[in-house]
Structures are given as structure tokens and as C-alpha cells.
Amino acid sequence: MTKTEMVGKAQTVLGPIDADSLGVTLIHEHLLLDTTFLFVEPTEANEKVLAHQPVCLENLNWVLHHLFSNLDNLRLDDEQMAINNLLLFKQAGGNTIVEPSIRGLSGNPLGLVRISQATGVNVIMATGYYISMTYPPKLAAMPEEEVADELVQDITAGIDGTRVRAGFLKGAYGGAGPFSTGIEDSDRKVMRALALAQRRTGAAIGIHTLRKDLVAEIIEILGEAGADLNRTILIHADRWGPDPLIFPKLLQAGCYVEFDGFGTAELGLVPAEGFDYQLNDAQRCDLILRLITQGYLKRILVSQDVFFKKSLQSCGGAGYAHILLNAVPLMRHKGITEEQIHTILVENPKRILAFAPVKG
Ligand SMILES: [Zn+2]
Predict the structure, then answer these.
(1) How far is the CA of 307 from the centre of ligand 1 (A)?
(2) Tens digits of per-residue pLDDT, 17-51?
(3) Strand locations in 118-252, DSSP E?
(4) 7 CA to middle of ligand 1, Å?
């Protein structure tokens, strides 16, 4: 399909579809990944045993408080398990998810094709680079144009030599979990490459940051590199703490904000894991309602960011269907209207996932 024909369409792992047919869409859910590079070996003998057990009900509470110290928790590598869990999202009325397992997270494009075929759920895969500790050594020598070429190739031809094309661009800065960092020169280069790739393809960009002190600089770098900030999502916005000033500033730049921690209140109990802050679902809904009142309804996205195995329903977690089953009733209870919920779950994802005309 040419770039002109892609305008108004979203690109799933099974091919382009009309953005109007995306339906209820969650913008950030991992199905297959491997983050064992984040593993932190416990020092106590009894915890060393727990570190190597599969996630189960007996160890779930320990895992919740030691997210990076259980190897099984850091792997989503079972396609049948992904299918079974994603079917619960479909049964709850879900239609589409964006799968942001980019380079460094061991994303599996062919696995996503099989999962989408088995469930009938549209899956849109992202391309880009995860935090700097996962950058391949060759990246240091690549000029930003070459990095952008690779990303464009993933969108126009296929990811990693497959014919499965990406439909979204993603970068990640400021570290993850216990591995908190600042923005390095290599990160700036990748960000500029994302902006270039966006100009050449019309795809939207999502930027992961767990640190609110980095967000303004990220917006500046992207803006200077020619990114369309109206087609840029700030991921993990519910990890930035209760700063009432940060949101208006970011929203005035045109960015979308993504509240993707629905169902993961326990992280708020473990700041030592590297998360600044974590709202609970009621606080998330209050914040969303406040932003709606301020006129930002069309810039709000929600998700659960299933990333750890403990988050799957089959392992005792909130799962892919949590927003539809539990958060939507809470939104209604808080006074968010049906029309506003529809905008957040259907219209906003559709607007951002539809490819825009290219800018050269
Ligand atoms: Zn994620």
C-alpha cells in the first residue's frame, strides 16, 4: 500500500484496516516480551528460591513487592497463555490493542500474527528502541538517518526481516524499574530518528518515561526534530505523581497523555522499585475527570500496560479486560459520561492510530 493509501488507515500485524473499524482500543498492552535483562538477583537465601519459581498464587504477593526479582515474572513467552488472556478482553467487548514490545524487549511479530488470528483481536505492533541499556552496540555508529531508515523499513516492509509491518513508533527514556537514568546523547539521536520516521510514514509516536523531570526535554527534542506533537503520546503519565501543573503544560504542547497503570495500584507501595509514584484507579479516574473539565478530553488515552506475568488474569492479575470490566464502571460512578468514555476508548485511539499524510 502506498503512503497516500495509508492515510486514514491503521496498520495491524495482519495488514492495514480502516481506522473506523478499530473499535474499543487499548493503546499499550504487551502480549509477548522478555525483560529478564531487568532481573535483580535477591541476596537472601529464601528469596533466591522464590526468584526462580514460576509466578503462582503462593508467591504472588512476594512477586508484587519484588517485581524485578522473579525471572518468570519478566517473561511473556507463552502464545497460548496470551491467547487465553486476550480472549477475556474480547469477551468484555474489546477489539484492538497496541503491542509496544519494541527492539530490546524481544517482541515477536510472527507470534503476534498467530495471536491475532486465534483471537480475532486487532494487534498493532510498534517499532523503536527500548531504554539505552538494551541498545545494540551497532547503534552508536549509526547516524540518525540510518536509524530512521530502519524504523521506516519496519513500517513499510516488515519488522526484522518478516513481512509483519509496524503501525506505531515508540521510544523509551529515563530507564525502567530500578534502572533509572537521564537522557543520553544516544537517546537524543533515537528521538530525532523517531521524528524523522514519523515525517516519512505518518505514524504516531509514543514516548515512555517514568520520570516527570524528563518530559519537558523530550518534548523539546522531538519538536525541534520536526515531530508532530499532536501525534505524540506521553506514556505512563500516571507515574508522575500528583503535580497539578505538569499536565496543562504538556497538553498545551498538543501531546496525548496515556494513563496506562489501570489495575496496578500495588506499585505505589514500592517506590524502591524505581517508580516515582503510582496512582490507584480511583485517583486515575479523578485525574481524567479533571483534565476533561479543563478541556482535554480528546487527549486522554487509557491502558493497563500488562508487562509482568503477574498482571495476567491467569496468574491472579487484573489482566487485559480490567478497564472494560472494572474501570469503566468506576468512570461512570465518578461522573464521566458514556460519550466521554466512548471518546477515550474509541475515538482518541482511532485518531492517533490512523496514519497521517507524510511530510517528506
Ligand atoms: Zn509497556
Answers:
(1) 6
(2) 999 999 999 999 999 999 999 999 999 999 999 99
(3) 122-129, 168-173, 175-176, 179-180, 205-209, 232-235
(4) 26
